[in-house]
Amino acid sequence: MGGVIRAGVFIGVDRVGGDLPELKDAVAGAERMHAWASRAGIASELVTDRHDKVTVDRVYDAVQHAVGTSGLDQLIVYFAGHGYNRFRREQWLLSDAPMRGNAAIDLAANVEIARYCGVRHVVFVSDACRVPPQGLQAQNVNGVEILPNDAVSASANPVDQFLACQLGKVAIEARDPALGYRALYTTAVLDAVEGRVPKVFAPHPAAGDDALYLLPRALRNHLRDAVPTRILGLGLLGAADQEPDAIITSENEWLARLDSVPAAPSAPSVPSMPSMPPVTEELPAQPAFEEPQAVQVQPPGSGRGGFFRRLRDLLPGGGGDLAPRPTPPVVDPRPRPTPPTTGPSTTTNAGIVIERATPVVMNELTTAAVTGDVSRYNAMLWALGTSPRAQLASADIALLTSEWPAYDFGGAAGLRLRGATLRHVVPRRAPADRHAGGQAARIRLGVAGAEPVAVVLGNGTCCVVPVLPGMVTGLTWDDGELLDVSFEPTRTPADPRVRALRAVAAASMRRGRFDLESLHPVDVQNAISTAGNADPALALYAAYAYYDLQREAEIAGLSAAVLAARGTTLFDLELLARRAPVPGDPRILVGLPLLSQGWSLLRALRTPLDDRAVSLQDEVLDSVWSLYSPRAADRLVDLVRSPGA
Questions:
Q1: What is the pLDDT of residue 274?
Q2: Strands 256-258 and 212-214: what pairing?
Q3: Of 141, 181, 384, 595, whose CB neighbour count within 10 A is largest?
Q4: SS3 of 58, please?
């Protein structure tokens, strides 16, 4: 394994334009990473603003030089600096950002190109914030590609992504009494790759030597514990909230190698309290850290029943022209699980007890929902509800598994809303009746079947959603965000297992991504089906999960299943399956990404849009499902009413 040819590009940007503060450890962190790479025999390029601005051209030239290394097996691209999420994907800000809109790097676009750039294994390491941009200037930042776009490989190679924090959170620099200011994430990465955490190294299954290797999944698992442990050790619990994430698609590639295990330290030590508070990438008019929202959570032994028990019922009853039908109580005779006696936690080498990482608990919750393990599902809900870091996720799941008001749509298809009120509802052809004080609408679909419907809310924001024969399309808003779109039968009860899994998927997507890595595709396919037909919303959530995992065949199968069941497929499914949906394709209900992440992939996947749809990109708001500003309402209605769009 010693003959692997490796190269790296290490980027550090302390200073950008606008109101963003100067960082203290982005450049120094890149320099430390570069020094490690040089010692490890990695041909390295260092690009920082210590002496000059970091521009797209400087970064592109460095990457081009690295990729040009003869027989390159592995490329590592590291970035430390300010970051935004745009369309819920990462933008790395360079020196002239945000004043210059293209002075940034689009991580999602570069991940897509990296899969086909000809390098056997590409690794992106991002020590940057993942907060939404604030203000028009920041919202107009659209990053560019830094990898050469020559697609030299006919098949995709694995690309791994290491992210310093969860979506919507900040990456932290804190003052260490011994070291000065340090970025917590980069420090944890270096501790691992430089061999200071021997337990993450193991023999390689294919190496044929006595050396020990650090594989990407081992690094991911280590970082999930190491960063929160460091926060506790520095006395910052309650002030700092940072949990790393990673998307791993490689199997036996490695990141670091040790010829022998270094001697263990004489005794573990816990870092002392810092003398100064942490420094974060604080945005104007936005708190440095998001305070946990208190959520009243019922233990698994209480509350209403059902196949998957609700944590709480957040919504009032409905009313209006569509009179709610009384809903009979549901009794679940199965025993309730008791709350865990200690809660999910782990003990570190330093003797610190910390909660298990939120992504780990969410993954276990996903597995329980897919497999139908009710006891495990309830136990994981309990774990989320008792974790200050994860209470917002548990609140989302409680909201999305709450019962809807039981409106009688008279056999027609319909819309129902919670968290927002309808101002206008505009199907393509079918007549529509707004009812229930703007909380529901009846859609009288004709023989043509499914239709796209433009929905304009009381505050002027708008979206487009499918309405399907015999189905009610449910839209759930929370804090101004379109959190979930559901499709449930008008005349028969909803499948509680599908509803539970969809709630977990939406809550996961709100925090970054829905992770299906450990689940068999057949189990997933079975779980997203209602009466043998694929649930369109779950198919979308699963497709984005499989795109991150580079499982394109599974996405194509999901699109085919939705087409077979509903007579139409969805733009995102064809986009993610790389089938280049074109304007006017009769199989596709409407030519727009339904989930906002799809907008970030249009350019990378070279996907054309109808001219009327292109201008909508600048109006996309921060939301799981595509939601547009009031300025887009007329354009969206015009697009929906055009059969060729």
A1: 36
A2: antiparallel
A3: 384
A4: helix
